[in-house]
Amino acid sequence: MYEKTFPHKRYNITLDFLKKHVPENSNILDLGTVNPFSEIMKKEGYNVINTTGEDIDTNQKAIEEKEYDVLTAFEIFEHLLNPYTVLQKIKSDKIIISVPMRLWFSPAYRSKTDMWDRHYHEFEDWQLDWLLEKTGWIIKDKKKWTNPTKKIGIRPFLRLITPRYYIVYAEKKS
């Protein structure tokens, strides 16, 4: 497995969750450009195709046209303005989505230098669950985990005890 430090802790948990629900050699459409985790999935025996950086809010061709067994979206949905439409147009019957959770003690993330690196949504678990249910998905499994830091203070303590990430495996209603 990978180291236990950030982002490797997240990678380990995400990979374990993926392996639990998706067999090796599955064709995966991973929303987002090629990234360290999509490379890990490939090394673990998955056939991964990434989207190319298009604005998924306005251009859903990649999810409508490609053939894939599972759609994955790891820390992508918080950047979308329109996740409802995206979820409706997914061709696969299976999805795995992870999101950073909304933290009451921290504002939504917004890069001051990168226009795309912003969180429009930071979900509470019930919000993502509701969104999935309203768009025709049945949640089969889910998990939350923390992301502690090695700093001292109130916010680092809260990060130690407050779940930061949420991952869901869901299947389309038949």
UniProtKB/TrEMBL annotation:
Keyword check for Transmembrane: no
Keyword Ion transport among record annotations: no
GO molecular function terms listed in the Swiss-Prot or TrEMBL record: methyltransferase activity
SUPFAM superfamilies: S-adenosyl-L-methionine-dependent methyltransferases
Domain of life: Bacteria
Keywords noted in UniProt: Methyltransferase, Transferase
Pfam families listed in its UniProt record: Methyltransf_23
GO annotation (BP), single: methylation
Transmembrane segments: none
Record protein name field: Class I SAM-dependent methyltransferase
Naturally occurring in which organism (per UniProt): Flavobacterium alkalisoli
Upper lineage: Bacteria, Pseudomonadati, Bacteroidota, Flavobacteriia, Flavobacteriales
